[in-house]
Amino acid sequence: MTEAKAPILSVRDLVVEIPTRRAVLRPVDRVSFDIARGEILGVVGESGAGKSITGSAVIGLLDRPGRIAGGEVLLGNERIDNLPAEAMRKVRGKRIGMVFQDPLTSLNPLMTVGDQLTQTILEHLPLSRAQARERAIAALEEVGIPAARQRVGSYPHEFSGGMRQRVVIALALCAEPELVIADEPTTALDVSVQAQIVALLKRLCRERGTAVMLITHDMGVIAEAADRVAVMYAGRLAEIGPVAEVVARPLHPYTKGLMASTPMATPPGQRLNQIPGAMPRLDAIPEGCAFHPRCPVVFGRCKAGASPTVANCGGRAACWLVQKEMTTA
User: Fold this and answer.
1) 96 close to 177: Cβ distance less than 8 angstroms
2) Rounded to whole angstroms, what are the CA distances from 264 to 6, 218, 223, 285?
3) Which among 70, 144, 199, 239 is most buried, taking Cβ atoms within 10 Å?
4) pTM
5) Measured between alpha carbons, how far is 15 from 216 in angstroms, rounded to an integer?
6) Within 13 Å of residue 199, how many CA atoms lie on the same side as its CB?
7) pLDDT tens for residues 121-168?
8) What are the tens digits of pLDDT across the range 262-318?
């Protein structure tokens, strides 16, 4: 990005807790980031990193007994994490759209896609039913559904997986939201359709100025689609920065491991790198840096106190080693 833009979404020290009989679990622990208008922020990490729960917290769809226990979420200049349920329901759809991972379960199988789009549009925009239906057809055309005027009366099962995902994206965008949260939107699709969906999100983001929070475990998708990337581990932010910087010069050892384990970073004929161990359970997150049991460069301080947040190259990494290298450089 060539110039700073005012953030449409600001997340500050977000904490999500899940109370259980034995302990209070923290799947999201003091996470902070911004997303500017027209920007795509990729949120990446292994399963259990806290990516999807962060997105659910932003849009107010945490499953009970999960709750926001700290921090704040601002959409524009308005704080939304403490809104009443009815007020938050009006924010969803109108100001924040959501693209879920599985389009088949995201769509009502008993309603045509046109009725679902029309209903969403009528809920959030002051249009007549006829106007809303025309807008629904236009939304399907915009996301690349062929013969949209004929297909608007079709049911979800009559579309392929890639076409259903396009319908879900149309649903997320039909009320012209300021922010779209896309949770693993390409995971269930083949490679060619993945590329089409990524290109579609990028185009709509640029044309409309919509901010996108793109949640994925695929660094290839991040490198292709995002402007900046936030790397999460065990509910914490390990590193954040411009995609070009993070891909070329990752700072955090976990980010380096993710990059080394992607096919695009591995020479032909060589085995993919593997990060040893596994993501810790929420009830067994280690003291200090949560990554230290798997880290190849761990030293004493990593096991003692919470990791710092370090500014470097327009980004930051929560790693004592990075701070040590910067102070001795």
Assistant:
1) yes
2) 33, 11, 10, 31
3) 239
4) 0.89
5) 20
6) 9
7) 998 889 999 999 999 999 998 888 899 999 999 999 999 888 888 899
8) 776 556 667 777 888 899 999 999 988 899 999 998 888 888 776 676 555 456 888
Q: Strand 96-99 relative to strand 310-312: parallel, antiparallel, unpaired?
A: unpaired
The answer to whether the CB of 35 falls within 8 A of the CB of 217 is: no
**Tokens coding 204:** 């709509």
Strand partners, 315: 312
Rg of the chain over all Cα atoms, to the nearest angstrom: 21
Per-residue tokens: 49: 């990193």
Cα separation, 271 vs 105, in Å, equals 36
Distance CA 22, CA 28 (A): 18
Torsion angle, alpha carbons of 292, 296, 301, 303, to 10: 20
Average pLDDT over residues 81-95: 90
Residue 134 phi/psi, 5-degree rounding, is -65, -40
Token digits of residue 285: 């997150």
* Torsion, CA 94, CA 96, CA 97, CA 99, rounded to 10: -170
The CA-to-CA distance between both ends of the chain, in Å, stands at 27
Q: What single-letter amino acid sits at 140?
A: L
Cross-strand bridge partners of residue 97: 180
Instruction: Report which residue type is found at 300.
Output: G
